[in-house]
Structures are given as C-alpha cells and as structure tokens.
Design a protein that fits this description.
5-stranded mixed sheet, 48% helix, 392 residues, 12 strands
Length: 392
C-alpha cells in the first residue's frame, strides 16, 4: 500500500497550471483540502463509485450553515440522495429533461438569443458576457419553468448568489443564506400562482403534477424546484462565455465552423474538455476505500480535478490542443455515473445555439483582448469580462 502521496492543492490560485493527468508519483495526491484525483481513469472510477457521497452538504456545514431551512434543503436534496430514493427523485426529471425536450427547445432558444441580440450595437465592441452570456440561461429557465420573462434577472441573481458557496469563502455565508431564503420565497409564490392559474406543460407544472399524483411530497417538490433554479444559470453563463472566447480566438477553427456549422456541437464539446467551468467535483468517502493502492479513510474529502482528467495524456492525444475531430471525446465536465448533471443536454444546446447565431449573423466577430479577462477561482474557470467586436 502507498503511504506517501505527492502534495497537491486543488483550490490554490495556480492549481490549473498543472498540465493534466497523473503526477509523476501517480494519479492521487494529498493536500490541506484532502485527496485530489488527477487522472481520467481514476476520476471516472470515483465519480461512478457509490461509496463516495456528494460533498455539498459538508461544504455548507463548513460555512457554519448547520441547521435551518437552507441546511434542511441541501440535506434532503437530490444531490444527497442515493439508492432507491435517488432513483425515484431523479427518474421523472431525467425524462422531462431528456433529448426530446432539449431538441424541442431549440426554436425557443433561437428566439431568446435574437431578442437579446436586438439590444446589441454591432457598430461598437459589445459586452458579450453581460449582454448575452449572463442573460441567456435565466431566460431559458423562465421558459422551461413557465415563469414570467420579467423574472429572469432575479433568477440569474439567485443562481449566482446561492452557488457562490463554491467560491469556498466563508465570509459569504450571510449572502448565501439570504439568497436561499429569497429563492424559497420566490418559488412558493411562483408555485402558488401556477396552481391558481392552472398547470401547463412546463417543468414546475410537471413537478406539481408529480406531487398531486402522490409521487413527490410537498418538501420534495420544493427541493427539486429549488435545485433546478440554483443550478439554472451561473455555471452555464460562464461556460458559454468560455466557449465563445475559445472559438473566436482560434481563427482557423472559427472559419471551419463558419464554412460548416455542422461541426459546432463537436467544437462545443472540445471547449468543455479544455475549459470546464466545474473544475473540481468534491466527494466524501462513506467508508474506507482503496484508490490506486492507498486506503482513503471513511470521512475523507476526495476532490476530482476535472480539468486535469480532461487533459490526461493517457486518455486524450495532444490533450492541450484543440482538436475538432477528436474521437471518443467524452470529458468529465458534467460528471459521470448516477449523479451526472441532469441539465447537460440543455446546457450544450444553449452553447451550440449561441455559436450558431454568431456564425450566421457575425462570421467576422473577434474577441477584443484588452477588454476581456478570463480568470480562475476555487479550481474553476470563470469569465470576468468578454468583449466582442462583431464586425457586422
């Protein structure tokens, strides 16, 4: 058994400078935050292993949120469920968010993007992150959930403030708790309005109908609705910006997309591999688990470094290069196993449609480098600013 592991800090400011894959000493490291998994093979194994539980509740508790409505929500959320309860809660949502829903929403997506683009002035460089990236996912959520379009700014703000938990800054605790309280109140009002006005074919109506059919308790209904709202915007916002930033800066690739838009889905997946917004997926060992010859004790924090697994040379040829024709390109950006991201299909389609819009309407668009800043925080990529010269 391995007793000495290399040192690695997955949340340090320079963590993402690691080129990817296992270290010289192996695919598992140890640091002040716990264990870090760096290779694609071991990362896949951990994410699919039911002996590792989502660390979202522990992160809340580390912030001092140890009781009350916010803690109760997370403790009973889909993220923390396993076994039959997880399957019961996840299956209906997975069906609702399946390929048919995703493809059917493309038309609505195009209309939303065109509406957002109407506010752009192509004669000057535009704040693409503020005007499109940050506004689109919340608008899509409102469409999907059957919420008034006027609620989109609130939805975006709630998603950003609740998930600021992932910044791992305990000073944000009052902001986080306040945001969740606001989110719960917003959903209670929205669900009450839906019940009064009559249910439709939207996601919230679907959840209400599941409750009314005895398949979800009242608490489960609101927990699932809250989980969908908190995850609705902020990560997709940054990932969309990373996609646009990457593709517009690689002019050879961009010209290929302009010439053949059928390549756009593959291009989006390759950016997801290279610049994954969810850079670290954290788990907790529920029992002693052997990983690569090391026994990880029960209760240990285990952090899967997604950006490292996605650039593992043992899994991807020329892992740091953008390769449009990459085969078997299945990065771990949306996780894997039974807890993979429910909204990944929708997120990909949103990104595809943004790129398609630029290809069709602004094929000469370029990034204004001096007014663009891409950063890193908490092991994650983020867009601080993205300015685009549309050159229409």
């Amino acid at each position: 058994m391995t007793t000495t592991l290399p040192h690695f800090e997955p949340f340090s400011p320079d963590a993402l400078s690691h080129p990817g894959g296992a270290l010289t000493e192996g695919p598992l490291a140890l640091g002040s935050a716990g264990y870090t998994v760096l290779s694609f093979e071991l990362a896949t194994s951990v994410l699919r292993d039911k002996r590792f539980q989502n660390a979202a509740l522990k992160l809340m508790e580390d912030f001092g949120i140890t009781d009350g409505p916010v803690h109760d929500f997370r403790a009973h959320s889909l993220l923390m469920a396993d076994g039959p309860r997880h399957l019961r809660l996840r299956t209906p949502l997975a069906r609702f968010m399946g390929p048919a829903t995703v493809e059917n929403i493309r038309g609505a997506l195009r209309r939303i993007i065109q509406d957002l683009a109407a506010d752009l002035d192509p004669s000057v460089p535009v704040d693409f992150h503020g005007a499109v990236d940050r506004r689109l996912p919340a608008r899509v959520y409102c469409h999907l959930a059957g919420a008034p379009v006027e609620d989109a700014p609130k939805v975006a703000s709630l998603s950003e403030r609740t998930l600021s938990l992932l910044n791992r800054d305990p000073s944000l605790t009052p902001v986080i708790v306040g945001a969740y309280d606001e989110l719960f109140a917003y959903l209670e009002d929205l669900v009450a309005r839906k019940r009064a006005q009559g249910l439709g074919d939207d996601m919230l109506s679907f959840l209400v109908a599941q409750h009314d059919a005895g398949k979800l308790s009242e608490k489960e209904l609101f927990n699932e609705a809250a989980a969908m709202l908190e995850a609705s915007s902020v990560n997709t916002t940054h990932q969309t910006g990373l996609v646009v930033w990457t593709l517009l800066r690689d002019r050879a690739v961009w010209q290929r997309l302009v010439a053949n838009p059928a390549l756009i889905p593959a291009a989006v997946v390759e950016v997801l591999r290279l610049y994954p917004r969810p850079g670290v997926i954290s788990r907790i060992a529920t029992e002693d688990v052997e990983l690569n010859g090391t026994v990880v004790p029960a209760g240990s924090d285990v952090h899967v470094a997604v950006w490292s697994a996605n650039r593992d040379p043992a899994r991807f040829d020329s892992p740091s290069d953008f390769v449009l024709e990459r085969e078997r390109n299945q990065p771990l950006t949306f996780s894997t196993g039974s807890h993979n991201c429910l909204g990944q299909g929708l997120a990909k389609v949103e990104m595809e449609e943004v790129v398609t819009f630029l290809v069709e309407h602004f094929p000469d668009a370029v990034v204004v480098e001096e007014d663009t800043e891409i950063g890193q925080a908490g092991g994650r990529w983020l867009v601080k600013s993205l300015t685009v010269d549309l050159k229409s």
